[in-house]
């Protein structure tokens, strides 16, 4: 927006998810608080701003106890430890969810309102879409569906998903050394019918990712 001196941004913020079971791991962002600078944008013509890269990387813990040995006595007086077997509790596939900290704008998929601060811009929102910022279509093919879980494997094929037999991935979210980047793009988008005015145009989201 005019007069915005390149301080407009979307903040990707980590939030710890408390699970009902300690055997379910909770993922983190590699970069705990990520700032994406959308830059200044002249909104007088009503056009959207260029897409900017808002991608992030996930770091997920190993599954709790998977592959460990446990013993089971074969009788009340069995002192030998009985037979042993591997623990088979597996992590489920990683899912993630984007929560906007500003109200969503239903008329434009994947779009949230700007921060309600003095001197804020009007007439535009911040739109988020899955995928590389250099290959986005108009409108975007995969706008973010806020507050809704989806499998990380749908966005990055390196992440494990259940196989054809229904078994779950095991103790890792993805192979050792594999790229865990989730491609995300952000831009300013015009909200039809709203008055356009210059000012600060910021927004914040939370990225929640865990084994589900």
UniProtKB/TrEMBL annotation:
One of its GO terms (biological process) is cell adhesion. One of its GO terms (cellular component) is pilus. InterPro entries: Adhesion_dom_fimbrial_sf, Adhesion_dom_sf. This is Fimbrial-type adhesion domain-containing protein. It comes from Phytobacter ursingii. The lineage of its organism: Bacteria, Pseudomonadati, Pseudomonadota, Gammaproteobacteria, Enterobacterales.
């Amino acid at each position: 927006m005019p007069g915005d001196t390149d301080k407009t941004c979307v903040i990707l913020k980590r939030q710890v998810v408390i699970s009902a079971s300690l055997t379910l791991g909770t993922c983190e962002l590699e970069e705990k608080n990520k700032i994406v600078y959308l830059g200044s944008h002249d909104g007088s013509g009503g056009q959207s701003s260029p897409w900017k890269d808002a991608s992030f990387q996930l770091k997920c813990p190993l599954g709790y106890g998977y592959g460990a040995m446990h013993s089971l006595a074969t009788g009340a007086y069995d002192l030998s430890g009985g037979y042993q077997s591997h623990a088979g509790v597996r992590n489920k596939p990683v899912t993630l969810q984007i929560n906007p900290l500003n109200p969503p704008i239903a008329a434009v998929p994947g779009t949230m309102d700007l921060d309600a601060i003095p001197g804020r811009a009007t007439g535009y929102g911040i739109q988020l879409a899955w995928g590389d910022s250099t290959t986005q279509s108009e409108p975007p093919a995969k706008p973010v569906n806020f507050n809704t879980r989806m499998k990380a494997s749908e966005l990055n094929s390196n992440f494990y998903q259940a196989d054809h037999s229904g078994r779950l991935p095991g103790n890792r979210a993805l192979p050792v050394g594999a790229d865990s980047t989730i491609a995300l793009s952000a831009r300013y988008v015009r909200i039809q019918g709203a008055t356009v005015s210059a000012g600060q145009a910021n927004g914040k989201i939370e990225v929640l990712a865990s084994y589900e």
